[in-house]
Amino acid sequence: MKAIMLAAGVGRRLYGDDGDQPPKALLTFGGKTLLQRHMDVLRPSGVEELTMVVGYRKDEILAEAVSAAGSDFISAIENPDFRDGPIVSLWCARHVLRSGKAILFMDADVLYHPDLMERLIRSRYENCFLLDREIEPGEDPVRLCIRDGKPVDFGKGVEGDFDVVGEWPGFLRLSPRIAARVADATEAYVERGDVGVTYEEAVRDVLVDEPPDTFGYEDITGIPWIEIDFPSDLLRAEKQILPRILAQSTGVSGQDIA
Questions:
Q1: N or C: which end of the chain has fewer CB within 10 A?
Q2: How far apart are CA 238 and CA 69, in angstroms?
Q3: Sign of the C-alpha dihedral, residues 209, 214, 220, 226?
Q4: How remote is the C-alpha of 49 from its chain's centroid?
């Protein structure tokens, strides 16, 4: 399995756009950057290579990634248009999506307990979303919608009649065939100049076009995590989520992984 991590953005919603803020992937929690925390989970989990899509302050991000995981594990793709929508970053990794390998897709700006990623990597589903039933209020959370035990819709502001609606943390497992389909859908948006949309739109296009049994999901309700987009998220990560991660981390594989 190969992993793709999007780490190109400026983080305008968190810091503004003055060009002096650190990349979100380098935010530190409990003495470790988010990148270090990602590597601590990925390397022991059997992921063979991590491709990082970088742009804003790319040298700093790659230096930290190589320091944390080694140059043999890290490859990089530069997105020179990183100020466009995140779908451009995913498009930059289209050859990895088409590599014929299973893909683990991930955002860089998520703080989480390692059990969350383990649940995804070890899932019985080749194509797998994660779902947290404790969805945050508002329009910003990305929603995963379940009907008859299957994911049937996905995105922000989704409406309809569903059995379960939960929040998606930003991680996704894809089979080689579906990964290639996501690459095609992403490329279609970019080729027509629709670069302001989120990459979730391309994933949704594939989801709704596939038979119902193509995708599954793992329920990670109760596992602490947070995507850091706004100043309030940063505060909550420091004051609420990190203490929960630290409290739950001793004992995973017999070690303290916090």
A1: N
A2: 24
A3: negative
A4: 16
pLDDT in tens, 151-180: 999 998 888 899 999 999 999 999 999 999
The string of pLDDT tens digits covering residues 26-71 is 999 999 999 999 999 998 898 999 999 999 999 999 999 999 999 9
Q: Which of the listed CATH numbers 3.90.550.10, 3.40.50.1000, 3.30.70.100, 3.40.50.2300 matches domain 2-256?
A: 3.90.550.10
Q: What is the largest CA-CA distance in the chain?
A: 51
The pLDDT tens digits for 196-223 are 889 999 999 999 999 999 999 999 999 9
Considering the entire predicted model, what is its pTM?
A: 0.92
**CA distance readout (Å), 252 to 126, 245, 255:** 24, 11, 6
Angle, CA of 116, 152 and 92, to the nearest 5°: 65
